[in-house]
Every structure is written in C-alpha cells, then in structure tokens.
C-alpha cells in the first residue's frame, strides 16, 4: 500500500506559494521566447516594456510604459481632451487586461499604475475633467488584436455607470462615452447589455447575503429552529433572520394561510424592498395541504403573491429546508428567481385574485382604524 | 361514573344551592372537579350572577353547539372558582331560527369577545353588546356562519379558492385505486 501523504499543515501554505511561483516563472520564460510583434512598436525587454502612442489634443504627450509578461502587447490610443498627459504604467502579467475607470481630479494629473495580475481584468477609462489630463490606460491582451475589452466578462466601469440606483447622472457619464467606445475597440455596448452585466454582478452578491423574514403561520415553523441553530446552521449559507420587512430579502411563509393572515401577508410583501423572494413551506402553500377543504384557508398561494420556491414535505425536515435554501441561492445567483418582477408584470392579475378571495385587501378592524 | 358522592368537595353544595333557586333541566357530573348544569333561558343570567358572587370569578369560555336536528343552539358558559378549584358549566338552549340572547357582559365583562366570536361563527346575536356585530376573525365574510352544521365547508372552498390542477388522477374515494400516470 502506498504511504499516505501526510498533510503538512505548517508548510502547506508556503509550499503552495512556492509552487505557484514556479509555474509563473516558467510561463514567463516561455512568453519571453514567444514574444511577438505588436501592432505598434513595442520593446520587449525582460520587463517587456512597450511604449505606447498616446494622442493628446492639447498639451504634451507622454510615453506610456506597459509591461506584458504574457501574450502580445497591444497598445492603445488614448485621448486626453485637455492639458498635459501624464505617463502611465500598467502591468498585465497574465490573461486579458481590460481598461479601468480612473478619474483625474482637478489640477494635477496623477500617473497611474494599473495592475492586472491574472485572469480577466476590467476595462479602464480615464477621465480628465479639467486642466491636466491623465492618459488612457494601456492594454495588454493575450492572443490577437487589440479590441478585446468587449469580451471581458466583468465590466466594472460600465456596470457602475449603469447602476440603477441613479447615483451617476447622465452628465457625468458623457465624457466616458467616446472613451468607452475606444476602449472597446469601437463596439458600443447597448444599454441592455450593460444592464445584464450589472444584474449578473448584483445577483452574485444578492445570493450570498440573504435576510429572511419568517411569516410563521403554521406548524412548519417548528422546523426552522433546527435549520437555524448549530445542527444545520443556516448562517453558513449567508442567511439570517431579519426582524422587519423593510430590510428583508426573503419572505418565508411556513404553512397555511387563512384569509385574515393572507391580508396581512400581502401588506408585508408589498412593504419589502426589491429584489424580494418568497419561499413557500410545506404543502399548505402549494395546494392547501390537509386544509384543502377548509372555508378559511386558501389553497394556492401563488395566485396571490409570486412564489420563487416551494419546499415540499408536511412538514419538511431540516435537511429539506437546507436543500431548499441551497436551491434558492442557485436560483438567485442565476437570475431565475424573478417572482418580484412577475409581480410587476402581472400586477393586475394578482390584484384581481386577491380581490376575488379577500373582497378587499385593506384591513378594517379596531387596530387599523 | 361521576356523581355527587365522589366529586370534589364544594361541587355538590353548589348544585344543591342552584337546584333550590332555579328549575334545573338536568345535572351531570363530568369530572372530579366539574359539573354541567342545564338551565332554561330566563334563569341563566340569575344563575351566572349567583355563581359569580359565590366565588366563580372567571368566565373560562362561552361557546355554542349547533343541534341541527333538534333545531336549537346550545350556549355554553364555563365558569371557574380558583379558591376551591371547581368548575361549573351552565348550558342553555335557544331556538335556531333567528337566534338572539341577552348579553352577559354586565356580569362577566370579558364575555364581549366570546360573544363576537359566537356571533361570527354561529350567527347568534347578543342584545346589549355594542360590539356584537363587529367582525373579529372572519373578515368580509360572505356566506352562512361557517360553524353551522348546514354550512358546506368544501363547497365554499371549491367555489372561492383556486385549486391546483394535477395531471395525475388520485382516484375517487371508495373507488378503484389510482395509478400514477
């Protein structure tokens, strides 16, 4: 029998770093050998410095140094609308480099050093508001051709510009426009594409921090303490309970809903901020469960509010609960949990159903009047 | 079988006191500490007043039973004496057609919510309770009071709530066992 390799806890990290260094140095040498021509003149020393042509409408031009360890270096024309240009050194060790948004404050131009260490980097768009300008980022691409930026999957600058929060006004965006066209090699991305990229990125973060509002109407709620506490530990998925609908992402409905509770549920759901996701627990939310013929209990919850996920079982065991939450996270991350959008799209239909069952959603009782 | 001899001390005395004052329809010892007494409608308020003064401070429950075949509602008043630990259940029958009863909120003030509940689920109107007709549990109810025996809960549910449709047949009750498609 082969001897089992002992796990060296002390030196594990050190070893792995050494290993990574070896690999890097190897690739560097091979890159150096296969160093090839760029579209413009580039000097490839050990540091592989490629000077870049930068276009400056006014003022002086400064050479740009870019370091390319891997692949071909593709210099890029940069425009500085006014003032002096400052030299910029960008380093791309590996993979595709994409431009990055940098802002030069009023007055001095700041030399910039952007580093794209590995993998995909974000595009760079430099902006000179007044006075001296900061030149455009240099770009190093792997493979052929310069305009690779449009293929870069993460496009931070554009994503931030199109953030739906409205914190960037159109006026501020304007100087970015032509530079972005340059940085993407002339291919202008549409609003929709940028929006998609933004929501993709947002979904990633949404899926990893979920706060739940638990609307425990039925017996299924007894399964939640196990799921939340140390045995199954929901918090390792990044989920936790939240006390108020205003700050919650998930509305958890555990069990049957009478007309009276449904009325309050709709209040609660509409108070939550978007994006919001609804999880139906147990068969009562699905088809009425054992209360399917009761005069007081509704049968299909998704007629009244959009449901993103059902967890089956009467009641679902904590394993099923955790499994359901995993699925929900997957749905959110892949952008398939779109119940809240559906509520907008079919608002009239939902309202009609609510009205048919409830008569009126508005609560009239001694506590509300 | 419980009777007056093996019940809790104090219980049979209360029954004999009530028996001397009112015309009782029937007495049954339900448990060691509990007795149920049937009374006629006009005597009930006096009976409750007597019990409250005798130490039965708490009205534990006020509820109703629908005797569909007899055509009556039976109102049930459940009072408890904390010092002696004994319970008396007073029962009274009222006609099922146009059921009305005088409120007991002047004796037990907490009865006002019980009376609203009985009105909502059985349709008994309590005269003298200003909130008797206010809704409590069922909001915007649009049918017979649901706890009446002639109310068809399933038919109401089928009519009112959208049912989920399944492709699989689950068979009829008592029919052939279903086969999964």
Summary of the model, kept short:
By secondary structure, chain A is an alpha/beta fold. In chain A, 33% of the residues lie in helices and 15% in strands. In chain B, the strands form two sheets. In chain B, strands 1-2-5-4-3 form a five-stranded mixed sheet, covered by helices on one side. In chain B, strands 6-7 form a two-stranded parallel ribbon.
Observed structural traits:
heterodimer, A: 369 residues, alpha/beta, Rossmann fold, five-stranded parallel β-sheet, globular, B: 181 residues, Beta Polymerase, domain 2, five-stranded mixed β-sheet, two-stranded parallel ribbon
Principal-axes shape call of chain A: globular
N-to-C CA distance of chain A: 80 Å
**Coarse structural class of chain B:** alpha/beta
Main sheet of chain A: which strands, in order across? 12-11-13-14-15
**CATH architecture field of chain B:** 2-Layer Sandwich
Outline of chain B: globular
Instruction: Compute the number of structural domains of chain B.
Output: 1
The number of E-state strands of chain B comes to 7
Secondary structure: number of strands of chain A: 15
Estimated share of beta-strand residues of chain B: 25-35%
Task: Please explain how this structure is put together.
- The complex is a heterodimer of chains A (369) and B (181).
- Chain A is built from 10 helices and 15 strands.
- Chain A is of the alpha/beta class and 369 residues long.
- Among the domains of chain A are: 138-207, no CATH class; 209-358, Rossmann fold.
- A 5-stranded parallel β-sheet of chain A has the order 12-11-13-14-15. Chain A has a 4-stranded mixed β-sheet with strand order 1-3-6-8, with no helix packed on it.
- Chain B is α/β, with parallel strands linked by helices and 181 residues long.
- Chain B has a single domain, classed as NADH:ubiquinone oxidoreductase Nqo5 subunit (Beta Polymerase, domain 2, 2-Layer Sandwich), CATH 3.30.460.80.
- Chain B has 4 helices and 7 strands.
- Helix content of chain B is 23%, strand content 27%.
- In chain B, the strands form 2 sheets. Chain B has a 5-stranded mixed β-sheet, with helices on one face. In chain B, strands 6-7 form a two-stranded parallel sheet.
């Amino acid at each position: 029998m082969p001897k089992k390799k002992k796990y060296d806890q002390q030196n594990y990290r050190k070893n792995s770093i050494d290993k990574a260094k070896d690999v890097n140095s190897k690739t560097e040498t091979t890159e150096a050998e296969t160093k090839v021509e760029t579209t413009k003149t580039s000097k490839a020393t050990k540091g592989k410095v490629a000077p870049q042509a930068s276009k400056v409408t006014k003022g002086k031009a400064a050479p740009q140094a870019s370091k390319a360890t891997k692949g071909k270096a593709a210099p890029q024309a940069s425009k500085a609308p006014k003032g002096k240009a400052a030299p910029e050194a960008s380093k791309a060790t590996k993979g595709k480099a994409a431009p990055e948004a940098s802002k030069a404050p009023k007055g001095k131009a700041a030399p910039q050093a952007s580093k794209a260490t590995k993998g995909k980097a974000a595009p760079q768009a430099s902006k000179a508001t007044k006075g001296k300008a900061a030149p455009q980022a240099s770009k190093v691409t792997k493979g052929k051709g310069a305009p690779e930026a449009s293929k870069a999957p993460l496009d931070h600058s554009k994503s931030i510009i199109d953030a739906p929060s409205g914190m960037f006004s159109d006026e501020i965006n304007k100087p970015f426009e032509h530079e972005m066209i340059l940085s993407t090699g002339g291919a202008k991305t549409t609003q929709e594409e940028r929006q998609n990229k933004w929501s993709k990125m947002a979904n990633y973060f949404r899926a990893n921090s979920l706060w739940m509002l638990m609307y425990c109407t039925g017996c299924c709620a007894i399964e939640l303490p196990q799921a939340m506490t140390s045995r199954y530990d929901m918090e390792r998925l990044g989920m936790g309970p939240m006390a108020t609908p205003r700050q919650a992402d998930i509305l958890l409905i555990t069990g049957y809903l009478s007309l009276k509770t449904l009325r309050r549920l709709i209040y609660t759901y509409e108070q939550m901020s978007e994006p919001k996701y609804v999880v139906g627990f147990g068969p009562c939310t699905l088809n009425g469960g054992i209360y399917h013929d009761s005069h007081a209990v509704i049968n299909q919850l998704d007629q009244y509010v959009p449901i993103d996920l059902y967890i089956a079982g009467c009641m679902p065991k904590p394993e099923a609960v955790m499994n359901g939450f995993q699925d929900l996270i997957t749905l959110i991350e892949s952008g398939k949990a779109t119940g809240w959008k559906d509520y907008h799209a079919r608002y009239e239909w939902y309202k009609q159903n609510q009205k048919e069952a409830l008569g009126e959603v508005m609560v009239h009782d001694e506590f509300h009047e | 079988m419980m009777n007056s001899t093996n019940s809790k001390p104090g219980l049979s005395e209360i029954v004999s006191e009530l028996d001397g004052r009112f015309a009782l329809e029937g007495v049954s010892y339900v448990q060691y500490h509990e007795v149920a007494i049937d009374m006629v409608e006009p005597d009930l308020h006096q009976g409750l007043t007597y019990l409250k003064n005798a130490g039965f401070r708490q009205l534990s429950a006020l509820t109703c039973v629908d005797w569909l075949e007899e055509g009556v509602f039976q109102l049930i008043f459940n009072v408890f004496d904390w010092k002696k630990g004994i319970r008396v259940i007073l029962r009274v029958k009222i006609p099922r057609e146009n059921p009305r009863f005088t409120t007991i909120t002047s004796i037990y003030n907490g009865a006002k919510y019980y009376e609203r509940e009985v009105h909502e689920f059985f349709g008994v109107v309590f005269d003298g309770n200003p909130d008797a007709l206010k809704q409590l549990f069922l909001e915007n109810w649009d049918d017979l009071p649901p706890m009446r025996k002639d109310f068809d809960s399933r038919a109401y549910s089928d009519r009112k709530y959208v049912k989920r449709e399944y492709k699989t047949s689950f068979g009829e009750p008592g029919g052939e066992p279903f086969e999964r498609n």
